[in-house]
Amino acid sequence: MQLTVLSGAGISAESGVPTFRDVETGLWAKVDPYEISSAEGWRDHPEKVWAWYLWRHYLMQNVEPNNGHRAVAAWQDYAEVHVVTQNVDDLHERAGSRRVYHVHGSLFQFRCDRCEGEYRGELPAMPEPVEAVSPPECECGGLVRPNVVWFGEALPDDAWQKSVDAVTHADLVVVVGTSSIVYPAAGLPELALAQGIPVIEVNPERTPLSDAATVSMRETAAGALPGLLQRLPSLLG
Ligand code: APR
């Protein structure tokens, strides 16, 4: 059985990582996720965009995978599991998932915004959130940026192709912790549904996918995922 998971920021929420559209408290309460994660935002004020991602990079060192990530990893004992994630954190990998496709990139890779060369140098320290930090400079004079996909940028080909294959060859797709509003990732469940592949949504809130999903569960990732496989017969009939 092939099981494909499409995850968003909500699966990491119970690890203490704020989602993109939760109202953030403190420093970034006023930050618009569309603005801070856009090529225009980077062009206009790279030091603010760099500070936001650098803080999230460091935040990840203090958080652990939760029971939602661990359940997805445990499913690998029963099925061929592919994880398509919009998340730039590494919590699926740290929980033990072996096939993880980051369609919006990763907080743990950095590259030059001019020569595109991978950056392996030192990162500035960031003991607490600050609004602006100057990004390191590349030898070519470009600025070092996080290897994440910003609005208006193309998704990584390899991750995207593997994600389309994983969704269209699945026996079941589980969509968890995503607002299902950012395309093209939000279009993946529709590909499965169009082929008659069952789609289960796990989200405490309704989303634009909720009506179309085969089953839509108003539950959290850490609450619903650990027992989900056992519930499939009753859920899918
Ligand atoms: N369990 C499951 N879902 C949860 C939980 C939880 N404990 N807590 C919150 N959620 C849900 C919210 O209801 C919301 O629908 O997770 C979703 C998070 O939505 P977003 O913050 O929009 O995150 P995401 O869907 O991953 O955003 C998609 O948008 O900002 C860009 O590139 C960024 O990858 C991101 C993309």
TrEMBL record:
Residues 1-235 form the Deacetylase sirtuin-type domain. It comes from the Bacteria. GO terms for cellular component: cytoplasm. One of its GO terms (molecular function) is protein-malonyllysine demalonylase activity. Its cofactor is Zn(2+). It is an enzyme of class 2 (transferase). Binds 1 zinc ion per subunit. Keywords: Cytoplasm, Metal-binding, NAD, Transferase, Zinc. The active site is at residue 104. Substrate binds at residues 53, 56. It catalyses: N(6)-succinyl-L-lysyl-[protein] + NAD(+) + H2O = 2''-O-succinyl-ADP-D-ribose + nicotinamide + L-lysyl-[protein]; N(6)-acetyl-L-lysyl-[protein] + NAD(+) + H2O = 2''-O-acetyl-ADP-D-ribose + nicotinamide + L-lysyl-[protein]. It is found in: Cytoplasm. Pfam families: SIR2. Zn(2+) binds at residues 112, 115, 138, 140. NAD(+) binds at residues 86-89, 177-179, 203-205, 221. The keyword Transferase applies. PROSITE patterns: SIRTUIN. Its EC number is 2.3.1.286. PANTHER family: NAD-DEPENDENT PROTEIN DEACYLASE, NAD-DEPENDENT PROTEIN DEACYLASE SIRTUIN-5, MITOCHONDRIAL-RELATED. Belongs to the sirtuin family. Class III subfamily. NAD-dependent lysine deacetylase and desuccinylase that specifically removes acetyl and succinyl groups on target proteins. Modulates the activities of several proteins which are inactive in their acylated form. 2 residues (Tyr-53 and Arg-56) present in a large hydrophobic pocket are probably involved in substrate specificity. They are important for desuccinylation activity, but dispensable for deacetylation activity. This is NAD-dependent protein deacylase. The gene is sir2.
